[in-house]
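Bumping with the actual sequence this time:
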Amino acid sequence: MGKSEFSATGVGIMRRLRSLTRAGQVRVADGRLALLTSCGRVIDSAPAREVRVERPWFGSDDQAVIAFNDTRYRLRLGGPAAAASAPHVSPVRRLREAVGQARGVG
């Protein structure tokens, strides 16, 4: 993967109060962020410059709220795969940095 690329599996993805998947994927590559089901079907995607990554007011360190295409998604990025890849860096922080680099900000 390139410097601005990010990939996480086993991600819980919710829209409003509805769970879309408990084992989805988040990918940042080629300047785009994509949310995928565990089977690889695209839930939603957008250019990185249109994506906002935020921390929820209430929630654990492994949760993020992303907004794009007039839709907000809540992600639970924690799990064994995230902990094994970089145990000392928050997966939310890595996602935020990857989106910033894909935008050309960071």
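The tokens above came from a reply further down the thread. The longest helix spans residues 91-103.
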